[in-house]
Amino acid sequence: MKRRNFIRSGALAIAGFTILPRHILGGTNFVAPSDQINLGIIGCGAQGRWTLAPEFARRANLIAASDCESRQLNAMQAIVEKETEKAKGQAYKGFKLYADYHELLNRSDIDGVIIATPDHWHAVQTIEACRAGKDVYVEKPMSHSIEEGRAMADAVAKYNRVLQVGNMQRSWRNFRHACELVRNGYIGEIKEVKVSIGPPPVKYDLPAQPVPKTLNWDMWIGPAPMNVYNEELAPPMERNTFPNWRNYREYGGGMICDWGAHMFDIAQWALGMDDSGPIEFTPPEEGELRPLSMRYANGTIMTHEPFRKADGNAVRFIGSDGVIDISRSFLDTIPAKLQDEVIGDDKIKLYKSDDHYNDFLTAMKTRKQPLSTVEIGHRTASLCHIVNLCYEFDRKLVWNPEKEEFFFDDEANKRRGNPIREPYSLKV
């Protein structure tokens, strides 16, 4: 696999999300219980502005934002004011902006935060938010290393917070249906799972460019290793695109983490492995066509390979009695009738959510666990991180999911974490 060429020539697929109009819920003057929750958003880049802020502004009180790029911060204000006015039928001018997210966390009137920063910021900001008494909605992949994920889970437990990971495919009917079909044996014993996503990340090697005057580059880097600025990491707003920091090891996890956090997540859910993961990871051998493979303790094999090249990111479940292919654009089954199978109440029924954002808000109010918990997010992200290490080391890795350590492999165990630049830390 030519990873560098694959990354630089590939395109990042973007899928929309459909919400239930407010007039269906109870008219334009309807005020849902979740609207009484006050939220702040940290990170005003493409995902924050285009997806998360509009969705939460329609469902709760989004009252503040923070970003280290002033133009993005100002653009976020315009979006939130517009969406809030549309949702509530009145002008909204109370939105506050902060260049430093710590000022946002210090506000006592904010109940929860949405973390939409690059991957390398997720752990530090989540831990600090929990310490400040805020619940957290954090974008996927939840962490940037195995060590970070465990620290995030420890913080949620210590401070008794609610955390929802942005693995929103779990709130989509077709993904849930596919997983329930697998769990209930509709395609028999699962022999193999194929996951089609893009490649792992590469080491950051881009040339230096002048830092925009509107960007605090030191704050953007935060706990990650300091490097020169290049607009591929933080593109100007005029490019109107998702940034490519995700393709570089120091700041993201490549498509293995970016899309694996979705597709490996669905595989884990269907296999009943939300509290575990594969125990062996084997890379492709030079000159062979076979993919990277993973083996669970029960013998199930999962591979990373483009099994439907024209269809992009997807998961295939191969059973003794049938096959299920699932993605954001299709649900194909053999036998075909399984697509419309009605799964009775006497069968295994998975957590049902039709709205990932409301599920988080409901959990905030009830203090019950949401659909995609910190432990689930940690296990999914850990799987992605180990796949990346397996590609990087180009050798077999043996993993103990219970102890969260590699067997007899000091090099791999040291890489369970990343260096954290001072003054930041993972201290819970």
UniProtKB/TrEMBL annotation:
Domain Gfo/Idh/MocA-like oxidoreductase N-terminal: from-to ranges: 37-166
Pfam family, one: GFO_IDH_MocA
Top-level taxon in the UniProt lineage: Bacteria
Domain Gfo/Idh/MocA-like oxidoreductase bacterial type C-terminal per the UniProt entry, residue ranges: 203-425
PANTHER family referenced in this protein's UniProt entry, alphabetically: BCDNA.GH03377 (PTHR43818), OXIDOREDUCTASE FAMILY PROTEIN (PTHR43818:SF5)
Protein name in UniProt: Dehydrogenase
